[in-house]
Amino acid sequence: MTVRLAPDACPGALKVHEAVDGGLARVRVPGGYLTGQQVAALAEASGELGDGNVDLTSRGNVQLRGLRPGTADQLASALAAAGLLPSISHDTSRNVVASPLADLQEVVARIDEGICAMDPLPGRFLLGVGGSDVLSVRPDLALVDDRLVVDGRDAGAGSVAALLEAAQHFLDLRGSEWRVRELTWDRPLGDPVAVGTAPALGVHGDRVVALPPLGRLTPSVLGQLAAGPVQLTPWRQVVVPAGGDLTGLVTDPASPWVGVSACAGLACAKALRDVRADAVAAVAPGPRPLHWAGCERQCGAPAGAVVRTATAEGYR
Predict the structure, then answer these.
(1) Pairwise CA distance, residues 161 & 175, whole Å
(2) Residues of 104-143 as b/e, b for ≥16 C-beta within 10 angstroms?
(3) CA atoms of 283 and 130, how far apart (whole Å)
(4) CB–CB of 264/19 below 8 Å?
(5) How do beta strands 127-130 and 96-98 pair?
(6) Could you give the CA distance from residue 221 to residue 271 in angstroms, rounded to a whole number?
(7) Which pLDDT score, from 0 to 100, does residue 274 have?
(8) For 56, what's the count of Cα atoms within 13 Å in the CB-facing half-sphere?
């Protein structure tokens, strides 16, 4: 059991975090599904209120950075108008990852509707749906191939109703805990479920899995993606219809950009070096996953990654 004295400080679309480069808003995108109009709305909001970019997160959500002071209400209005903020009270609770290429929009919509109908889940709590690939990001609860999975272990026959009931059970059990792994689950669990991997970059039938370097969608890339639809993945990929403009995106699975990530760098007061610029300058084949961290906290480092951590003298 974990006891915490402070509330979860995860940023949201309404709870803007103040960073060195300005405000940071995290917009939840259940399942990673965005229409072209929603991509355009994010691009417009970032261009008018922030630094013009949209960053992908390890949960298939997005972040807008460099937001000017006093723009929080304007951002919230723009997001609500685009259908990206359907519940003010559940802004940070709508954390759902979905397997790419599996056409799970309707299932995710039902899960999201159920989440918003219960008391808010902690901002760190994560649900998954689809195949075993979603288990690689360690969701608290998942619906995998018609099985309910609780913290990586088989919990019996699964359905949307079973997933939501398990989420409600977590709320009934928790004290100050944020994740299932932090408390004692009082229901029978079976064996661990095999964990899958992210989809390979490239063409998959009528869709393409592509990677924006360091998970950043630039204004020009956002303009291309506004043709929609787009699915964001928890591996900081985008899934788009085949045949579109992919300039600025990586589609070669052998690219040295595959598996490379970095923290916010000098946008954070704790960073000792411009890790994002250093990652761009040094990208080359090598061990993967590889994460560049601006300080000892190593924020955003994937499980099992080789981490290059900035120091006063360079990197270790």
Answers:
(1) 23
(2) beebbebbbebbeeeebbbbebbbbbbbbbbbbbbbbbbb
(3) 32
(4) yes
(5) parallel
(6) 27
(7) 96
(8) 30
Separation between Cα atoms, residue 195 and residue 149, nearest integer Å? 11
pTM of the model: 0.94
> What pLDDT is attached to residue 4?
64
pLDDT given at position 3: 60
Closest of 254, 134, 242, 138 to residue 198, by C-alpha:
134
Look up residue 110 and give its two tokens: 């039902």
Give me the average pLDDT of each 10-residue run along the chain (316 residues). 67 93 96 98 98 96 96 96 96 97 97 97 97 96 97 98 98 96 96 96 97 97 96 97 95 96 92 96 94 95 91 94
Per-residue model confidence (pLDDT) at position 308: 96
At residue 2, what is the residue type? Answer: T
CA distances from 47 to 43, 61, 64, 218, 220 (A): 6, 18, 10, 10, 11
The answer to whether 265 touches 55, Cβ cutoff 8 Å, is no
32 Rama sector, left if φ>0, alpha if ψ -120 to 50, beta otherwise: left
